[in-house]
From TrEMBL:
SUPFAM superfamilies reported for this sequence: 2Fe-2S ferredoxin-like (SSF54292), CO dehydrogenase ISP C-domain like (SSF47741)
UniProt pathway: Alkaloid degradation; nicotine degradation
Keyword Transmembrane assigned: no
GO molecular function, one term: oxidoreductase activity
Gene source species: Sulfobacillus acidophilus
Name of the protein this chain belongs to: (2Fe-2S)-binding protein
PANTHER family: OXIDOREDUCTASE WITH IRON-SULFUR SUBUNIT (PTHR44379), XANTHINE DEHYDROGENASE IRON-SULFUR-BINDING SUBUNIT XDHC-RELATED (PTHR44379:SF8)
Pfam families in the cross-refs: Fer2 (PF00111), Fer2_2 (PF01799)
Highest taxon listed in the record's lineage: Bacteria
Gene3D superfamilies listed in its UniProt record: 3.10.20.30, [2Fe-2S]-binding domain (1.10.150.120)
Residue ranges the record marks as coiled coil: none
Domain 2Fe-2S ferredoxin-type: 8-84
Sorted UniProt keywords: 2Fe-2S, Iron, Iron-sulfur, Metal-binding, Oxidoreductase
Length: 162
């Protein structure tokens, strides 16, 4: 007879909202975000931290949510792609992705957006080489990377005009 799985009570701040949840201690942060909070913008690809599709911010820094347990996020600020999207419209980076055709199937897009935005927040003058290096941990099987790099450069330049 199967035994009931133990649960752990945690409190998570995700996209500025505090959630009290009972989670399995073995669930990844990606699982908690997707299956308990319904934040399906966090994609699960390789489940080994290689593809970058599950990238979220933990206290403002990009992390692979498939590589950490949900219980480890307690006491930290988690931001998903839903959290960087304005309530109306798109962010400048999201607009640049749209304008520069920087997505096709969209599977890698949330991880690319979070990685690129973290770079631009840290270094608003990032050069192409820095952008390529930052994005090198995110895999895209559709577009190649030139359109994605072009979009990040355009968002960077739009930020300079602001």
């Amino acid at each position: 007879m199967p035994t009931e799985e133990a649960r752990t009570a945690i409190e998570l701040n995700v996209n500025g909202i505090t959630h009290r949840l009972d989670v399995s201690p073995r669930w990844s942060l990606a699982d908690v975000l997707r299956h308990q909070l319904g934040l399906t913008g966090t994609h699960v690809g390789c489940e080994q931290g290689v593809c970058g599709a599950c990238t979220v911010w933990l206290d403002g820094l990009p992390v692979r949510s498939c590589l950490m347990f949900g219980v480890q996020a307690q006491g930290h600020q988690v931001t998903t792609v839903e959290g960087i999207t304005p309530s109306t419209g798109l962010s400048p980076l999201q607009t640049a992705f749209q304008e520069h055709h920087a997505l096709q199937c969209g599977f890698c897009t949330p991880g690319m957006l979070l990685t690129a935005q973290a770079l631009l927040d840290r270094n608003p003058k990032a050069e192409e080489g820095e952008i390529r290096a930052a994005l090198s941990g995110n895999l895209c099987r559709c577009t190649g990377y030139q359109f994605i790099v072009d979009a990040v450069l355009a968002a960077r330049d739009a930020g300079r005009d602001a």
